[in-house]
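Escalated from tier 1: manganese (II) ion holo job.
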Amino acid sequence: MKFCRFNHDRIGVVRGDLIHDVTSLFDRQLSWPTAPGDTIIAQLPAVHAAGMDIANMPTVALTDVRLESPVANPNKIIGAPVNYHAHIAEANADSEINSGRTYTTLKAYGLFLKANSSLIGPQDDISLAFADRRTDHEVELVVVIGKTARHVSRDDAFGYIAGYTVGLDMTVRGQEVPSYRKSPDGYCVLGPWLVTPDEIENPDKLKLSLTVNGENRQSANTDLLILGVARLIEYASAVYTLYPGDIIMTGTPAGVGPVQAGDVIEASVENVGSLRISVIPAQSTVVGSE
Ligand code: MN
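Tier 2 regenerated the structure:
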């Protein structure tokens, strides 16, 4: 099932060229304090398992809506740095990427968090945070957590997944900590929708690719992930409690490179989907004067 969010928080199932509006199947009445995580994603596995009467839901043409990030309110956005050997090699060979660091293994570096406020949908624009800094594209397979997870073993990890989506982990190159450089508004793009696990036979064997203005920049397969999906969930849940709607960006393959205002990025993951998004100029060059 392709689950989406559209037109100011409507909830949909995508079938072909149509979206079936299934908003009425979800409880949107929130009590305070709300449980951590995304309350709609928390309901998704049970609603899906109960069987949706999708055919009787109102429909709208996919081309007539504005798609939003399939997750509205993650408790956190987790990133896996240097999770492909070829990306480690290119990073170590390019001083603009490594800024003086030498990357060895993912576990030497750990994980990083991106600000939740960086999250945008597939039909937004990426507004550059700085007019004069290198900002790179990173296409990634994204895992969305479906139920609360803590100390989950790799053997049990697939039971905690709500679905998969396409992600862009936009990154300013430089010496600041990743939580700063990867967190400007708009630097986490998700979309176009969430594909439930029953449609993805093996997330560790999916082609992923990225073009800029139609030119190939990244082309790889998740079978090259150093820590695959299950091991990433094990690794992340060993330190963080994962909540429904939490986002795990699994890492980018080789081919990262800078983007500029006016560029159009197209990012795809096999059997998941594609998103096409524009890069627009920095809104201000005034950043944190002393
Ligand atoms: Mn990344």
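The longest strand covers residues 161-169.
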